[in-house]
Write a structure and sequence with these properties.
Elements (H helix, E strand, L loop, with lengths): L9 H20 L8 E7 L2 E6 L2 H9 L1 H10 L7 E6 L22 H12 L4 H11 L16
Parallel strand pairs: 2-3
Antiparallel strand pairs: 1-2
């Protein structure tokens, strides 16, 4: 079975190799702390496009723009006149529990419940007081005192 790369159009393969080569040229000339944070993504209409992994490196490479153009022009790309730098942070998929998994309700200890009730009684803001009282009701059944509603 052929590999994926062997089935690519030769011009596409050559273009990818050229972009990798230009990235390598820059890595040899730019500050070492920037290595791995960018790559040459495209060359279009006398403009080199560089992608970074964060806005911080986008700003830094934009500051180095004239130097980058000079480096690339000296490496055989004399037609380049402009540079565009974009940030494209690597995205990791958000882990979500399967829909079949039910989350268990969270409970607090009776002592925490009493402290929240005390704090709520001293709060003047009605919304905050109600939120604290609602939170205080999250005591699990096994922790609730027998006569919780009767505080006389």
């Amino acid at each position: 079975m052929d590999s994926f790369n062997s089935r690519l159009d030769d011009s596409l393969r050559r273009r990818a190799q050229e972009l990798r080569r230009l990235t390598s040229v820059l890595r040899g000339e730019l500050p070492p702390e920037s290595d791995g944070h960018y790559h040459v993504a495209n060359i279009h209409d006398r403009t080199v496009v560089i992608m970074t992994d964060s806005p911080v490196w986008t700003t830094r490479l934009r500051q180095l723009g004239p130097r980058i153009l000079t480096i690339l022009q000296n490496s055989g790309r004399k037609n380049l006149l402009h540079i565009r730098v974009f940030s494209r942070p690597a995205q990791s998929p958000v882990a979500r529990p399967p829909e079949s998994v039910k989350t268990k309700p969270k409970h607090i200890s009776p002592q925490s419940s009493r402290l929240l009730n005390q704090a709520a009684s001293a709060i003047g803001d009605e919304g905050l007081r109600d939120a604290l009282l609602k939170l205080a009701r999250h005591t699990s059944d096994r922790h609730k005192p027998e006569n919780q509603g009767n505080s006389d």
